[in-house]
Structure formats: structure tokens, C-alpha cells
Amino acid sequence: MTLVNVGTQVSGTVKKLHVDFNDVVKAGQILVELDDSILVAAAGQSEANIASATASLDLARANEARIQSLFAQEYVSRQELDQSVQARRSAEAALRLARAQNDRDRANLSYSVIRSPVSGVVVDRQIDVGQTVAASFQTPVLFKIAQDLAQMQIYTSFAEADIGSIRVGQPVRFTVDAFPSRHFKGSVKQLRLNPTTTQNVVTYNVVVEVDNADQRLLPGMTAYVSIAVAERKEVLSVPNAALRFRPPASATDKDSTKEAAKEGEGRAGPPRQPGSGRKRDGSSGVVHVLVDGKLKAVQVGIGITDNRITEITSGELKAGDRLIVGENIANGEPSSGSGPRLRMF
């Protein structure tokens, strides 16, 4: 969607509005009329200046002709002849200036009727009848017109660690608050090269194009965007909470914990908070499974993640194992009695 700001090149008072919010307009259609009384007077004055300049030029030409005749008979000097020529040229220049002024005044008069530069839908109106608009160094915005609501764009940003995995044409999925249960689709249109740095975090803007044929999406909606940069099918996976969980010492099988720690020595621990779909191939982590009422630490290899679910590439973990993802808390304190109450997945 291209949003076009419609302004004014002349100052004046709004006399008549022809469109309102959500109106469909065509290119060249009248949007608003300004009071043109001052502009009409200025155009009339410049036309009178043309008539005056024309009369002055006629007089200068006649005077030049007489001086030339007298000069030929040696009744006047060369200086008087030169002065008559200069007067005629000045009159010609004054006429051209008057005509240029008239052209400008007529153009300004035409600008009092403001027309739509494009076809589209009026999404914003910032003036009312009787309001005075002043065109100075910065043109005031009167209307905002969306050219084509059937084709929308999303402006989003991604961290520098993720931008290397994004390519033009990649499919995009997103949701909006207005339709939380509906997943919309789009594709990456542009990766902008100009970075933005905020509190030492570098991000890059990404433009996503979206087909909005049913026009359910509206300008200004907040979109929650996800881009699939890697995909695995039919693989073993665990929730990220299982990789983050660290049980109290009393609840663990110490032998399995030592063994898992030894196997993971010198390798990466639980995954950092990666970007969506960032590859973690070659990293490792520890999950805890419940075996015969006891916790057992299991060393696993980590693949890709979407910040919620992580692929498991190696280790003794099997589908169906009972994973521990957290500890139940009662009134802000761990439960007492027979031991910690664990949440399983």
C-alpha cells in the first residue's frame, strides 16, 4: 500500500469539502475548494498590468520610430536615439514580466481547487470547512490517500544475528490483534541496507508484501511477524523450558547429573535466547526426565529452535520420555513435604 499525502500550494480558507473519511476517489477528482477571492483579485491585477505594459510598449516603439527619423535628419543626437531604444527594450521586458506574473497568478488560482493526484481511498482528513490553511516552507497535509488497500505492506525489523537468514521472496506468516485466531501470509519484498542502532542493538528493516484482497487488514494495524528460515519435519523436539530447567540438588540423580556434565564439558550449555529459527547445530544441552520417580539428567544435541520448541539431534532421549519443564510454586515458595512438586511435559 502506498500512502500519498495531499497538500496545498496556496494559502486560504476552506470553502467546500467534497470528500470525507473512507471515500473512494479517482485521480483528478476534486477534494476541496479554498476561498479564491484574493487569488481572483491578484489575477485581475496582473491582467491590468499586462494592459498597462502593452500600452507603454506601444508608446516606446512610436517614440523610437520618431527619434530614428529625426536622427536620420541629424536633428537629434546619438544619445537620444540610444535612450529611445533602451526605453523600448525596457517596455518589452516589462510586458514579459507582467505576462509571467499573470501566468503565476492564474496557476495559483487553479491551485485553490485541490484534486486527488492518485486513485485510492481517503484514510485521513485533517481539515474542516472554515479552517485556514497556510502554505509556507512546509506544505500542510490536508488528506492522506491510500492508493490500493488490496496490496498492503508490513514494515518490520530484525536483529543483525537473524538478518543473514532472511531472503527476498521468503514466505511470511503473521497475525494481528483484530483477528487473533487467523494466520495471514505474505512474502519478503525488500531488505533495507540502512541499519538502525538502539541501545547498541543493531536491526535492519524488512518490508513484507501482503495480498489483502478481502481488505480485512487496515492501515496502521500491528502485525506479529514470523519468517521460517529453516524447517525440520518428523524430528524429536522438546520445549525450551525443558532445556532451561535446573532442579534442586535433592531431586536429582547425582550419578546421571555428573555423567551429563562430563559429557557436556567444553560444549555449549542450555541455548541462549536465539532468534526465530536460528540454527544451533552442534550445540548441546541437558534435559531432565522422570525415571522410577527420580530425575535423570540426559545430555542432548540441539538443532534449530523457534524460541518455544527446539530440535533434538542426538542423545539418549526418546519420544514419550517424561520431561520436567519446571517446579510448581505455592504462595511464592517451593512446596514442602515429600519433596518438590515438578511440572512434566
Automatic annotation (TrEMBL):
Residues 158-228 form the CusB-like beta-barrel domain. GO terms for cellular component: efflux pump complex. SUPFAM superfamilies: HlyD-like secretion proteins. Residues 252-266 have a biased composition (Basic and acidic residues). InterPro entries: Beta-barrel_RND_2 (IPR058792), MdtA-like_BSH (IPR058625), MdtA-like_HH (IPR058624), RND_pump_MFP (IPR006143). Residues 246-284 are annotated as: Disordered. Residues 45-112 form the Multidrug resistance protein MdtA-like alpha-helical hairpin domain. It holds the Pfam family HH_MFP_RND. One of its GO terms (molecular function) is efflux transmembrane transporter activity. Residues 4-141 form the Multidrug resistance protein MdtA-like barrel-sandwich hybrid domain. Belongs to the membrane fusion protein (MFP) (TC 8.A.1) family. PANTHER family: MULTIDRUG RESISTANCE PROTEIN MDTA, SLR1207 PROTEIN. This is Efflux RND transporter periplasmic adaptor subunit. It comes from Candidatus Proximibacter danicus.
